Amino acid sequence: xxNAEPGHGAKVSDPTEVSERHTQLVDAIGSAILxxxxxxxxxxxxxxxxxxxxxxxxxxxxxxxAARAAGHxxxxxxxxxxxxxxxxxxxxxxxxxxxLTAEQRWLGPVTAxxxxxxxxxxxxxxxxxxxxxxxxxxxxxxSTQWEHKRVVWxxxxxxxxxxxxxxxxxxxxxxxxxxxxxxxxxx
Length: 187
Description:
Blueprint: H1 15-34, H2 42-69, H3 74-81, H4 85-92, E1 104-107, H5 115-124, E2 127-133, E3 136-141, E4 144-152, H6 158-162, E5 166-171, E6 174-184
Antiparallel strand pairs: 1-3, 2-3, 4-6, 5-6
Helix pairs in contact: 3-4
């Protein structure tokens, strides 16, 4: 790897710095997984780690999608992942199940700063989130209004579920909760 001009996608070329950053990331993820977990619950730990693995896998798909949206080639993404262009395209390319129905659409682009306001407006019109991608939400339309709530993933959602919230989707580190109000959509 070579160093680029600072502020222009500079890459780290020092293996020690890469290893240190990797260790810090692994420690942070481990702390997030174990935070509040009982030490004598090995099956609970398996469940939490499996949930985290799924979230990281989803985050990787989102980041590849963002790189593609920014104009990066499959070959460039493959080089970052240590994969061939063909392998990365097969793994992360468009899939048939991404075909939208008449009652689905992508909401975006949105950021962490404005997505909740956008979801509030969409919710009044009968849309609720079912999947979150990089800078967008896949929403589905119903005949009733929806409320949206974004919470940090902690593993336990029981207090929200007691209040009628259900998981709309997960996008690490967030969980997007939705709740049907039962009120007809605004026109």
